[in-house]
Amino acid sequence: MRQKLVMGNWKLNGTKESVNTLVNALLAPVNAATNVEVAVCAPAIFIGTVEALAKGSALQYGSEDCDVHTSGAFTGENSPVMIKEFGCKYAIVGHSERREYHNETNEVVAAKYEAAQAAGLIPVLCIGESLAQFEAGETADVVKTQLKAVIDKCGIKSFEKAVIAYEPIWAIGTGKTATPEIAQNVHAQIRAFLASFDADVAAKVQVLYGGSCNAKTAPELFKQPDIDGGLVGGASLKPADFAAIIEAAK
């Protein structure tokens, strides 16, 4: 039985005050959710703050990205080794915003995935299609290509220590959400594709849904057999909403 995982992605949001308020508000619902893992991925500058606030609680945390390099002359980047040193468990890689705004190819994403694992982090591999690709019926081909780049570089067994997040780009921050049936269908296709390489790995890997997952949509999404939780954007910045999503996962 795969454990449900609810993960917040704060994106480019937060102040010292808001981070303190948010994490402190989450500790009680997180500690009460004994059958659900809860994590937040924070901007790098706030990871140390989250580390201090989460100490002694069940809240896990991670970074929103990581570099392919562990050290060197790469100004402005965040080494996966440094991220791990602050107690992070996860590193998001391949988010659609990184792919679009920073021109990260499938090969770059695979390299980041590999670097995160080498540093002892669990990569959260984001995959998903654009609206044009969705309307053209290309969803399955897109997600398979994105997965195959990682399999080619790191092997199917690498998914024993990874999380997948299916994020239809057309549903991120738009208020649009794939219906539970659409999301379940894609999640099942993801798992079937992985199973074509290794059925045991496919059965165990957590696949999260991440397209405008919120307090209203989470209950029905989380009932689907191949949806193992959510990668939550805007709603993760609102303690009451995020707590409701955790409750739905319970």
From TrEMBL:
It is found in: Cytoplasm. InterPro entries: Aldolase_TIM, TIM_sf, TrioseP_Isoase_bac/euk, Triosephosphate_isomerase, Triosephosphate_isomerase_AS. The active site is at residues 95, 167. This is Triosephosphate isomerase. Involved in the gluconeogenesis. Catalyzes stereospecifically the conversion of dihydroxyacetone phosphate (DHAP) to D-glyceraldehyde-3-phosphate (G3P). Keywords: Cytoplasm, Gluconeogenesis, Glycolysis, Isomerase. NCBIfam families: tim. It comes from Ruminobacter amylophilus. It catalyses: D-glyceraldehyde 3-phosphate = dihydroxyacetone phosphate. Its EC number is 5.3.1.1. It is an enzyme of class 5 (isomerase). The lineage of its organism: Bacteria, Pseudomonadati, Pseudomonadota, Gammaproteobacteria, Aeromonadales. Substrate binds at residues 9-11, 173, 212, 233-234. GO terms for cellular component: cytosol. It comes from the Bacteria. PANTHER family: TRIOSEPHOSPHATE ISOMERASE. Gene3D superfamilies: Aldolase class I. Pathway: Carbohydrate metabolism; erythritol degradation; Carbohydrate biosynthesis; gluconeogenesis; Carbohydrate degradation; glycolysis; D-glyceraldehyde 3-phosphate from glycerone phosphate: step 1/1. It holds the Pfam family TIM. GO terms for biological process: gluconeogenesis; glyceraldehyde-3-phosphate biosynthetic process; glycerol catabolic process; glycolytic process. HAMAP family: TIM_B. Homodimer. Belongs to the triosephosphate isomerase family. Signal peptide: none annotated.
